[in-house]
Amino acid sequence: MNALTQNDFFARLDGTARAIETLLDGLLAPEPLPGEIERPARLLEAMRYAMLGGGKRLRPHLVVETARLFGAGDEGALRAGAAVECIHGYSLVHDDLPAMDDDALRRGKPTLHKAYDDATAILAGDALQTLAFDILADEATHPDPAIRVELTLALARSSGLGGMVGGQMLDLEAEGRFTPEGKPIPGDETSTLRLQAMKTGAILASSVQMGAILGRASEAERQALAVYGRALGQAFQIADDLLDAEGEAATVGKATGKDAARGKSTLVSLLGASNAKARLSGLVDEAEGALSVFGQRGDVLRQTARFVAERRS
After folding, report:
1. 295 in helix, strand or coil?
2. 3 state SS of 110
3. CB count, 10 Å around CB of 92?
4. Keyword Magnesium on this protein (predicted)?
5. What is the pLDDT of residue 265?
6. What phi-psi label fits residue 36: left (phi over 0), alpha (psi between -120 and 50 degrees) or beta?
7. Which letter does DSSP use for residue 160 in this model?
8. What separation in angstroms does the CA of 197 have from each of 56, 130, 172, 259?
9. Is 284 a domain residue?
10. SS3 label, residue 209
11. CA-CA distance, 254 to 110, in Å (whole number)?
């Protein structure tokens, strides 16, 4: 087997992104599904605005490439990846709202509530969340109901109260939203890591886990992939914090410098940029090392860890 080149990696990443775009386009078609009554045009248009025409599709890529480790990177893996992307998309729509981060720009274009209105953005996010579980429950994703249930549980646990949504609440608390003074509450490294593992890392780690579920990975293989997923999630957040601290809005595709303006604790603010970059490098090494059990078959996921650390947007 030949070593994976960087061009090969980007071809795989782009190939999955194109396949997910096509799949989402079909899933967000105007024709109602059995059990649905009607798909309101404005709501559907807003959902398509949020989901189509942008993004690296990193989370679906993780689902698909992890499943491919076990020969299972088929249409079912793409559908599971699309479900994760719907959860990610809904979280961005809601995070951008005035009651949350109050952002005006996402991926270089107006955020959904700016392009439409707050109420439509809330409903579009709600509909994307439920669509994610609709996709996973469908037999088209996997013929084995036990696999579908396991996929659903993994995504629900990582995206809800004890995962992404809970992490968002911790983030709001850290900003001082619920204190009389409204001042940020400084966090230490432990609390910052916990917040970030929930808000950002949980869905990334779950994407890897879902690929392992589809591939019917052994317990030892799942454990190795769990280490990889946790390290990747933390690496992604440090890279994101560095982009916020050092990146240009035109390149990143959204406003930068927000963390410092809000007095938020990040590993960059706690450790300093130099030490945060060193931590990032160590996390990439940890992620790559966790894949040793897979030999050369793990090269795409190894390159993914490097891509996450080196991204500029």
Report:
1. helix
2. strand
3. 21
4. yes
5. 86
6. beta
7. S
8. 21, 23, 15, 17
9. yes
10. helix
11. 9
Residue 1 resides in a domain: no
For 128-158, what is each residue's pLDDT tens digit? Answer: 999 999 999 999 999 999 999 999 999 999 9
* Contacts of residue 83, Cβ cutoff 8 Å, sequence gap at least 6: 131, 132, 133, 135, 136, 141, 151, 155
Can you tell me the mean pLDDT for 4-17?
95
Tokens in use for 248?
């240009």
List, for residues 181-226, the tens digit of each pLDDT value. 888 998 999 999 999 999 999 999 999 999 999 999 999 999 999 9
User: 184 lies in which domain range?
Assistant: 6-310
Nearest alpha-carbon partner for 222 in 75, 86, 70, 20: 70
Q: What residue has token string 């809005």?
A: 249
Check residue 107 and give its pLDDT.
86
- Closest to 260 measured CA to CA, from 168, 200, 175: 175
pLDDT at 256: 58
224/232 Cα distance (integer angstroms): 12
CA 98, 46, 159 angle in degrees (round to 5)? 65
When divided into structural domains, the chain yields a total of 1
Q: How far apart are CA 258 and CA 17, in angstroms?
A: 28
Kindly state whether residue 31 falls inside one of the protein's structural domains. yes
And the tokens for 5? 């080149």
Helix, strand, coil abundance in the chain, percent, nearest 5: 70, 0, 30
Residue 66's Cβ-side half-sphere holds a number of Cα atoms within 13 Å equal to: 31
Q: How far is CA 18 from CA 44, 50, 95, 216, in A?
A: 20, 16, 25, 26
Q: Does residue 224 lie in a domain region?
A: yes
19 Cβ contact partners less than 8 Å away, ≥ 6 residues apart: 78
